[in-house]
Amino acid sequence: MPKIISNTAQYDMYHLKSLNVGLDRLTLTVNPHLSPIYKKYVADAISSAKIGDEFTFIGAPHGSGYRVSVRLVIPGAEPDAYPIFQIAPYGKSAFFRLECNPNHLGPAGIEAMKNIIDGNTPHGWVLFMYLATVSRLDVNIDAQGIPLHRLVLGSKYPRVTELWNQKGEQDEMNVHTVYLGNKAKSDSLYRVYRLQGSKIAPGSETATRFENVDEASRPKLKDLHKYQNPFGKLVVGSVLASKPEGWEPWLWEMTMRIAADHGLHAALHHLPLDKRKAAKKALSVPPCGIDLMSCWDQWPALIEKFGVQSPGILGPSLAVYSSEFEKAA
Predict the structure, then answer these.
(1) Residues 202 and 145 in one domain
(2) Is the same domain home to 151 and 255?
């Protein structure tokens, strides 16, 4: 159980180093108005190429519902970060499906991905630029220097799942992941977890990632730079929040313990109605200047850096690429 520390000076050992916006998962689907001959050609070409061209395609897990499912081999990337490219579904409308992790690939990896698609599909990456729908978008904000076990989390969705590492629940430092919401039952799912290894920035001993999984809004890729901050419904408070005026110390400590263990929603539920407003206000004060809304101006620049809205090197020179196609899109 996380400890409630009454001396706020002990919290000063943690300082917010930075808030960094990232893109942890991007899934695109396209149903272009290509002729049946083109569609069959693309599916057949990649299906045969993946057998003999291990430098470009490797097999992906079966059972996806697509006739062709391959991973695109990206030089310098870890194999588990290779994008999944799927073509010709059984009984689905989207002809192309692409899933990648821009955070892991980086701008160079995404450029390599676009070049592979340029060389193996009609219209190349330009087809995705203008026609792709974002069917899933996982956006993250990393709070460098702030540990997860010092945070109180809340939203309009109850805290539904907690994962702990192998040392067990008795060690306050070992809470690893908290989920708020449910993809199947709500329009948003928040996932908050402790970063490890190389994801912790130099000079920071700890870091927490706030992540939003969006499968509902489905923006177009060409409009992705306009995507609105999805973290407005997530409340981030501190387990060291100041006691509301007039409260008994034992009641406030109990409230903070429940909030630390089970989230803001559960803590308020255990209080009398006349005390919930004051408790919510106190527990909703973000610690150490964490403001998940103020850093969103990084988003348009991030999309530009990754280059997902610009053509690959081969794009403008492809025979099928023309201004007429752009007008049609």
Answers:
(1) yes
(2) yes
Local structure of 229: helix, strand or coil? coil
Which residues in the chain land under pLDDT 70?
Answer: 1-13, 34-35, 49-55, 57, 59-64, 92-93, 160-175, 183-187, 198, 201-204, 316-329
Three-state secondary-structure class, residue 84: strand
What is the pLDDT at residue 228? Answer: 95
pLDDT, tens digit, 9 for 90 and up, residues 118-156: 888 777 898 898 889 999 999 999 998 888 888 888 887
| Order of strands, sheet of 207-214, starting from the edge strand that comes earlier in the sequence | 57-59, 66-72, 84-89, 96-100, 18-30, 133-144, 207-214, 189-194, 175-181, 159-164
* 3-state SS assignment for residue 248: coil
Residue carrying structure tokens 């630029």: 129
Question: Each residue of 213-235: pLDDT tens digit?
Answer: 999 899 999 999 999 999 988 88
**Residue 247 and residue 115 share a domain:** no
Residue partners of 203: CB distance under 8 A and separation at least 6: 17
Q: Are residues 198 and 283 in the same domain?
A: yes
Q: Largest Cα–Cα distance in the chain?
A: 76
**CA quadruple 118, 121, 126, 129: dihedral sign:** negative
DSSP letters of 250-291?
HHHHHHHHHHHHH-HHHHHHTS-HHHHHHHHHHHTSPGGG--
Domain range enclosing 69: 33-122
- A 10 A CB-CB count for 272 gives 8
Could you give the C-alpha distances from 292 to 5, 78, 143, 194, 213, in angstroms and in order? 25, 30, 9, 16, 15
| Cα separation, 329 vs 263, whole angstroms | 45
DSSP output for 182-205: -TTTSS-EEEEEE--GGGSPTT-S
Q: Which distant-in-sequence residues (6+ apart) come within 8 Å of 270 by Cβ?
A: 254, 255, 258
